[in-house]
Amino acid sequence: MGAAELAGRIADMHLGRMNGRGLVAEFRRALALVPLCEGGLWSVDAEGVRWLLAFTGEEALSRFAASRGIDAGAEVPYMSVYGARLLEVAVPAMGVPAGVAVDVAGPWPALLPPVVGIVPEAVAVAA
Question: How far apart are CA 105 and CA 97, in angstroms?
Fold first, then answer.
């Protein structure tokens, strides 16, 4: 599944046509764009959780960059990564409670929090 299809699945979840568990499964199979920042994956910390940022396409990434004051013509470096790799490898490598935030500057954002069933049990936090 490509990133564009993932964007449609996220919209479906917001519209009540897909449950969260289905979205996690779709995210695992999809390629997402992950922006790079200072030699690593771009992330933000909020209320004790580090959120890795992922986007469903260049347009969504550009919206985020613009929301951060980055000029429209400026290039934001990124890599394409399967969602499963983000959840199974990148999240545990953070060393702190971490999840994935998808399309955070768009109309249909999605948060994949650090809980059992989304991230590996060893790095999940209690509900």
Answer: 22
Q: pLDDT digit string (tens) for 66-112?
A: 998 888 778 899 999 999 999 999 999 999 999 999 999 888 888 99
Q: Among candidates 115, 110, 83, which has minimal Cα distance to 18? A: 110
**pTM for this entry:** 0.86
Q: What is the pLDDT of residues 107-127, one digit of tens each?
A: 888 899 999 999 999 999 975
Q: Where are the alpha helices (DSSP H) in the chain?
A: 3-14, 20-29, 58-67, 83-85, 91-93
Question: Is residue 10 a contact partner of residue 108, using CB atoms and an 8 Å limit?
Answer: yes
Instruction: Please give the torsion angle defined by the CA atoms of residues 98, 99, 103 and 107, in that order, rounded to the nearest 10 degrees.
Output: -110
The sheet that has 49-54: what strands, in order across it?
A: 43-46, 49-54, 98-102, 110-112
- Residue 37 phi/psi, 5° resolution? -145, 125
For the chain, the domains span: 3-123
